[in-house]
Amino acid sequence: MSPKEAGTGTKRSYHPDRVRHIRDNGEYFCYEDNTPTCRHIMEPNGTTTAAKIRPAKKTRQELEKAQVRYQFDPDKKFIPRRQYANIMTPERVLEIIYDLPCFHSQTPEWKQTLAQNICFGSDGQRPALKTFGALIMSNLELEHDISEHLNSGLNDSCLPLRADTSDGADKLYCACKKENHIKTMNSDEYSLSEREGFLRWVRRLTAPYVAYQPKQHSHYVLDPGNCIPISDTTTRIFSPEHKNSRTKKNPDNPGDNPVKGGYGGFSEVHRVQLHDCHCRLPDTGLRHSRGFYALKKLTSHNPLDFELELASLLFSADRNGGKRHMIQVLATFEERLVNQSTFYFLFDCAEGPLEYFWRQHEYLVGDMSHCRSMSEQFLGLGQTLEAIHNDRLDFPLPDDVPELKNIPNFENIYGRHGDIKPSNILYFQPSQGEPRLVLADFGLGRLHTKVSRSNQDPKLLSRTETYRSPEFDLPDGLVGPRADVYSLGCVFLEHIGWFLLGADFPDKFSDDRLMKDMYGFEVDTFFMLTDRKVAVIKPAVKKWITDLKENKACSWFLFQMLELIEDQMLACDKESRIRARPLVTKLKALQRACQSSKTFYMKTWKDCECPVIPESGR
């Protein structure tokens, strides 16, 4: 049997085989990873009936205490799988069977067989341990029909059950068999409230088991009452832009809010821990030392927004084989309600954005030995950008997305990140190895939400795009992948400035760049438009680049990086600007030079003669 799959009701922009829609909460994966071994169960010692608390009641009390309240909805609860296994042991199951009056006339051999079938399964059938627990927890009278329920085919492979309200009778059915074979549970003997109670406990015992599949992304479709198995501690993550933004607000629209960075705007991002008994996720090399994950909750309930962002992440990740400097989505969740769904993305949790790295690593400022690590980070980010551009260009947008049809050259827009800035470059500190910078917050979903931009008056937009390329402001400018190269050049320049001058550099640099733009806004972009509407690098930017080259800690590596940034990455004419692929060639040459010659990154350009990086086109 394979995991149950179903669509979300919207046409997807990725190949259907790339994503597996899981509707059994991962029960199949959990069973495959934790298949129980059949064994003889020790018989009760004979004092069960004399005990003050009967085993079924004791079990109810223990399971009620084991419930964990769901952080995003206090009305939802779940019982972690390990806690359930520790309470509902095979010995406890047999003890309950011995204690139930309906089984007193049965032989010990019959009781042993029933307990083994419940705990371990039989004849190719899955166990019924969670089913047994839900029957015990929901209503005492249901216990008398346990064997009849099991004989009807009700076991853990049927979970989670679903309610069919089409005829107003609220019958339960088994989704895996696509039929209503649970006749005993749907008989007139049980009331609606009893069935609802049983279903409620089934859901509490089947919180998702999150499993990673190498070739298929796992998307968990959760019915009402199901919840993501996070622990009881969760912290909401805010971008530094919320507290200390260098964004210059639109004076005509003072109520606007800066957009969250890192894992994306139009969302809430929480730092969470998953119960380890509920997940099987690979170590991507980015795993938080304390086991935290980032759970991104989209504020939009539109399935298309979710589908586009997921497609952006998956196809770029597929092209970028190493994935060392690209954020990876580990799983997604869809909490379904009657009229809408809420969507979540699960990522590894970063220490913070690039600005946080700058503040936490001031001891590296001026330490020329760090240049070798910088060369590796720059190359990794460049390779990630190359993967994004090439990948999406190779995969066309779907023809039936009306919101995207009127975008000029939309294939190129699809092949770009769209919002590269320090807050969208995340800093990870793996348990082993050096810190790693990772490109995050892929722009496809955001592009969709801002698709009407061309129809909006620019004066009504917040001027938050410090790192935007000149194409955004030029009358006939078409935005393509090279806009990302420009933005990445801005970030590289700020990073080098931090390394040479310290954590105060970005703010000083920003203040020096402040000028009024064509709409009368005071902006800190890296370019300006002349009276003839020609884009040029701002004088303050050129002056700072010259000053950085003269810094006593500016190594030959940094000097050539500054040359590459100024001449090719920040070229205001996009046709003269270097593309991602030749950029990677140059970054790779610099990185190899750092590896092969310590002098290249430990001495200044004035103190030694080193080869210039090779020409590789634009």
From TrEMBL:
PROSITE patterns, sorted: PROTEIN_KINASE_DOM (PS50011)
Q: Which GO terms describe its molecular function?
A: ATP binding; protein serine/threonine kinase activity
Entry-linked SUPFAM superfamilies: Protein kinase-like (PK-like) (SSF56112)
User: What's the protein name?
Assistant: Protein kinase domain-containing protein
The record ties this protein, via InterPro entries, to:
Kinase-like_dom_sf, Prot_kinase_dom
Q: Give the highest taxon in the source lineage.
A: Eukaryota
**Every Protein kinase domain range:** 255-590
For the region Disordered, give the residue spans: 238-262
From which source organism is this entry? Clonostachys rhizophaga
Q: In this record, what's one Pfam family?
A: Pkinase
